[in-house]
């Protein structure tokens, strides 16, 4: 079976996880590791997705095992949308539309997407939420897919906790971290420490994990309010505030690729 090279196809990799490990440091569960509910972060998926669809791109949802994606409960709260009820409704309606029209509830298991089929995608996008900490960083199939986009220099976008997936490239190919020396922005250790205070526990740090493998992490006041980082085929952002800028830059990179 041959695949047509279609520059209007985008692969979106979602987490299968519904929680992430939180090592409790206070309260009755101190010293225990509990599973904290999580999933994909609604606006980090919806904002770039909306831009891709409006620009005429066809999206394919995929995940390591093909399980039904669940939103991070925090990302559905009105607080996440700074009280904007209409914005939240619009983004939930977009996901509902994807469920009806685009198989959102049944993502493609990544091992069903051959290297040949990967050639037909113009770019790949990995949204955040804490759940990717549970599965995307050490998944061999995620690593295979990301290596493909890296080797072909095809636009690769991710934000918040999504960039933990980049570590998966060590599980495929020659086992090297292919983004060594890349400038990357993600959910910072400082932001994670604030979450740890809220949740009363310790969480794996994306920024430190990537830095330890040789990435050049770009973090600071600008990134906290949504500034993005571009390096070669990679565009990354640190938190939900970066979702719009990341979507715009991803489209720009796709149009010139």
Automatic annotation (TrEMBL):
GO terms for cellular component: cytoplasm. InterPro entries: Class_I_gatase-like, DJ-1/PfpI, Prot/Nucl_acid_deglycase. Signal peptide: none annotated. It holds the Pfam family DJ-1_PfpI. One of its GO terms (biological process) is methylglyoxal catabolic process to D-lactate via S-lactoyl-glutathione. Coiled coil: none annotated. It is an enzyme of class 4 (lyase). Residues 39-252 form the DJ-1/PfpI domain. One of its GO terms (molecular function) is glyoxalase III activity. Its EC number is 4.2.1.130. It catalyses: methylglyoxal + H2O = (R)-lactate + H(+). PANTHER family: DJ-1_PFPI DOMAIN-CONTAINING PROTEIN, PROTEIN/NUCLEIC ACID DEGLYCASE DJ-1-RELATED. This is D-lactate dehydratase. It comes from Aspergillus hiratsukae.
């Amino acid at each position: 079976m041959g695949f047509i090279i279609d520059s209007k196809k985008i692969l979106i990799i979602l987490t299968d996880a519904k929680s992430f490990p939180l090592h409790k440091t206070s309260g009755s569960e101190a010293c225990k590791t509990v599973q904290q509910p999580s999933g994909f972060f609604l606006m980090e998926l919806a904002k770039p997705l909306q831009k891709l669809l409006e620009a005429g791109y066809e999206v394919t949802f995929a995940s390591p095992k093909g399980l039904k994606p669940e939103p991070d409960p925090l990302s559905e709260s009105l607080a996440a949308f700074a009280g904007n009820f209409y914005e939240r409704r619009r983004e939930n309606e977009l996901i509902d539309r994807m469920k009806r029209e685009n198989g959102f509830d049944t993502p493609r298991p990544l091992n069903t997407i051959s290297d040949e089929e990967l050639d037909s995608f113009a770019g790949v996008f990995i949204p955040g939420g804490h759940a990717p900490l549970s599965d995307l960083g050490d998944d061999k199939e995620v690593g295979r897919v990301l290596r493909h986009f890296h080797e072909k220099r095809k636009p690769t976008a991710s934000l918040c906790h999504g960039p933990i997936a980049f570590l998966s490239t060590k599980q495929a190919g020659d086992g090297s971290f292919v983004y060594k020396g890349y400038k990357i922005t993600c959910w910072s250790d400082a932001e994670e420490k604030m979450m740890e205070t809220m949740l009363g526990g310790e969480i794996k740090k994306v920024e430190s994990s990537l830095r330890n493998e040789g990435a050049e992490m770009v973090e600071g006041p600008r990134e906290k309010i949504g500034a993005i980082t571009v390096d070669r085929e990679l565009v990354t952002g640190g938190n939900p505030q970066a979702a719009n800028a990341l979507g715009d830059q991803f489209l720009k990179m796709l149009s010139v690729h």
